[in-house]
Amino acid sequence: YAKKRGAGALSYFDESLRHTAMRELAVATALRGAVARGEFEVYYQPIVATRSRRTLVFEALLRWHHDGVLVSPGDFVPVAESTNIIEEIGAWVLDTAIADLARLRADGHPDVSMSVNVSAKQLRDDSLPGLVRETLAKHGVNGDCLGLEVTESMLVDDAQKAESVLVALAAQGVLVVLDDFGTGYSSLSRLRNMPISVLKIDKSFVAEIGHAPSALSLLAAITSMAEAMSITAVAEGVETEQQMAVITEMGCTFAQGFLFGRPAPLDTWLSAQNRQR
Ligand code: C2E
Ligand code: MG
Ligand code: MG
Ligand code: MG
């Protein structure tokens, strides 16, 4: 019986594995040349100062127009990453987001900054600081107007390499942003040698406000640690005024979430006057 059951489990596993592999292959094939075909678009989501609720930063969030559907990064970034296509896509996102930052600053948002997500592969590439420098120069934007979002796991795997790339970026004034904080297994103190300026508290903590009593003490611990390390705390996924009140009380100086705006095309954020032309 045990043997039979084992065999059944194995063949089920095989099926799902084959399905995943075929899906990944299909996505990888469709991604090839997608940049050149103009299938990507960058959406922007505001990040506001908790005190004034003014938008001081936009986060660039990639979208893929594929077969008449708008595909979210969760469905293709992992495949792009495992097939090296991410390098081309990443460079395109950086160029587009910085070009759009220059437009936003010229039109209605004179002092906003831009925050761009980078992948593990990009971060391990020595050419990233040079690419960032060239792209900023191309669009006449200063390094201190740009944040690059990385996650804990990227800093823990091959920490020395990550640190040298981050130090080179920080030397240009670029802000290093630790994204989705709290979902990994590292501690902030373990990352104290990294030049981190901003920490984004993962939306799963914010979602637990008002539901799990431990959410408040976890938020308090993260924000006080960030403060002790002179790191700016941003709350992600703020959807309600109740969550906003709590994260403000906890000392988060910035907030991002549907309460303030969903990711949307650049045009949505340009001044109304300009949009009419
Ligand atoms: P992330 O960087 O943590 O981005 C925040 C995600 O949370 C976005 O999902 C955003 O739409 C969503 N979000 C924002 N506010 C709220 C809210 O109030 N409630 C809820 N439930 N969700 C909210 P999105 O756009 O699907 O992006 C998913 C992830 O894909 C990003 O997570 C980021 O890790 C990755 N990603 C996005 N753009 C890029 C890119 O250009 N390059 C790379 N390498 N990764 C990217
Ligand atoms: Mg992000
Ligand atoms: Mg995040
Ligand atoms: Mg995320």
UniProtKB/TrEMBL annotation:
Coiled coil, from the record: none
Top-rank taxon, per record: Bacteria
Domain EAL: 24-277
Name of the protein in question: EAL domain-containing protein
Organism name: Rhodococcoides trifolii
